[in-house]
Amino acid sequence: MSAATSLPSSTPPTAPAGPRPLLITCDAELAEDVLRLAAAAGCDLDRAPDPLSVGDRWRTAPLVLLDGPAAEAGVANGLPRRPRVLVLARAPGGDLYRAAFHIGAEQEVILPAHEGHLIELLAEAVDRSAPRSGRVLAVIGGSGGAGASVLATGVAVTAARRGQRSLLLDCDPLGGGLDLAVGAESTDGVRWSGLSVSGGRVAAGALHDALPQRRVGSGSLAVLACDRDGPSSGLTPQAVGAVVDAGRRAGQTVVCDLPRHLSEAALAGLRKADLTLVVVAAEVRACAAAARLVAEIRDRTAGRLRLVVRGPASSGLRVSDVGRAVGVEVLTAVRPQTGLSTALDRGGFCATRAGLRRTVERAASEVLRALGRTGTAPEHALVGAA
């Protein structure tokens, strides 16, 4: 990721407690450069001036970085070979390869030419030891006006009210911007046009700090919205994948609001989801449209696919009828709430009165329970009465 254009490089590291990558050098300038890159990767480093002072960290560190003199000293003092060792240098060539070979180095990293690659390697070291506790939800409308964006926003807000950190991703460049839906349109922070991902990886802490945020209950909600005054140039498949992965690494509830006409960027979010919801009105034409959408995305969903039905219908179409017509199990149903749209226009979901939010939040609670069960045995269909 190009931190210079979008995210601060001074974000506190997000690595969990435990063994940290180890930097061995007495070169103060080199150490300063590596520490800067580690901060961009959300990685906290241990540092030692020479191989004699590392102790057991040589064995336990998930990644070891050392310069040429340190590698030569390590060989001279009999440090055993180990995996995941990188040798740092300012220029290629010389006799460095001999010490690198004997110390077990897998790569030679030339700085500053290979800075982006080193950031990726440091971020991978964080990922390897971090619990992947976050969950990813994708929400898509089965037909126009189904209410998918309202449900996506409701799930993200409800997760935050429960003390979680939630991340709401707006993947629809023609949707008007989900920052409006949470009342964060005037809040400073990065939108998609301000995000540049070049290395395929985003430091989770830096990302969260850079986005517009709202405190909701005892939790927090960050939103990455599309732009209203120009193209959302940063909304690329690579960026969506990197942002979703960052939220997952940070243990966040990540909610992706996807457009019905799926772009490659939206498909990247769909493939990452643990659970995908298609929101469909209890109407015959809506069911026909949703069935066609499901046929297109069923094989592209990495996780489970479920319906959320908006009803009841004046025609008497039941929730179970909708599930059969579309060919997907129904997770829950949500009743239309009179006045909700007007309230959202006046301040966003976070500012809407609890009574108006209640129907959506009840459905959001069902969704969060199902999302929490992803990765376990498949659940039975939960059909809400409408």
UniProtKB/TrEMBL annotation:
Residue stretches making up the Rv3660c-like CheY-like N-terminal domain: 25-129
Q: Which domain of life is it from?
A: Bacteria
Q: State any single GO MF term.
A: ATP binding
Q: Which GO terms describe its biological process?
A: negative regulation of cell division
Q: Where is the composition biased (Pro residues)?
A: 10-19
Q: Which residues form a coiled coil?
A: none
What GO cellular component is one of the record's annotations?
Answer: cytoplasmic side of plasma membrane
Q: Where are the stretches annotated Disordered? A: 1-20
Q: Which PANTHER family does the record cross-reference, listed alphabetically?
A: SEPTUM SITE DETERMINING PROTEIN, SEPTUM SITE-DETERMINING PROTEIN MIND HOMOLOG, CHLOROPLASTIC-RELATED
Tell me what this protein is called.
Answer: Septum site determining protein
The protein's gene is named: minD2
